[in-house]
Amino acid sequence: MEMTERRKHLEFLRKTARDAIWAGDYDRALSLYEDGLALARSWKDRDLEDLFTCNRATTLLEMDRQDFDLSALKEILLRSPASPNGVLAAYASAHAHEVRGETSRAAFYAQAALQKSRDLGLEEWTAASMNLLANLELRESRFESAKALFEEALDRLEARGDGLSREGAVVCDNLGYCHIAMDRVEIGLPYVQKAISVLDSLGARQAMDYPSVDLCFAMLKLEKLEQGESWGIRALGLGNEFGREDVVKNSHYLLAEIYSTMGRPESADDHYEALANYYPDFPALKHYLHQISVMGMLNLRA
Predict the structure, then answer these.
(1) 55 Cβ partners below 8 Å, 6+ apart?
(2) Which candidate among 41, 74, 279, 294 keeps its CA 20 to 30 Å from the CA of 13?
(3) pTM for the whole structure
């Protein structure tokens, strides 16, 4: 197979894998990336091998798995610092440290990805790196700084015609959540509604869990309890389907608050109980949540 044909074949594998990820079929995506990695190695194409190594790692992270060599990503970054693969390796390293709760290391590599993508004029990765940095700010409840980064990321995506893409919708939802968390619900709600509409139209089911729980949160703040209940149930289902423990826990808490406000104590109790099961070392949690609402300090991204 000629070199150009090889690259076309591997690019087809990557596109098919990306589509599978957005649809929530992680196993298929992983299989495609591993096929591509094996082919790149057999052809002794180091550039393509590095690319598929990064793609495989990011897919495993989405699957809540860490059975990959993080040091291999950093070797790619050192070997190809001024290349698209270097950007991807820095981004994947940042994501890996984020998942491990190593915020300062995650921020270091996310900043590296941002700087390198800017230097190379890679607008898509510049926006992605800003989104990742903003998410790290959200984890620390620094909502204003996160909002500014999300706004710039969304502006960049819209400027290149990607505002209605799957990536654009994710950033749009994150920006909306920032406003909702800061009690600017009327400003944030349209962003989240737009995001979930775009993701739904593009068949990106696995990315609809966060917007669903964000809408549940917004409706609870607006005291539109029936709508909040509907979005909470949807978020809980998606969280369970795609293994998003944070979405599941937040959905249980919000639904418990909704049912408590509705005067449905048994339904509320079911969700408080489900949430308490995640914290066996805090046996009094269920009783505590019954007595004290933490809505005022709740951060769905912490």
Answers:
(1) 14, 17, 33, 36, 88
(2) 74
(3) 0.95
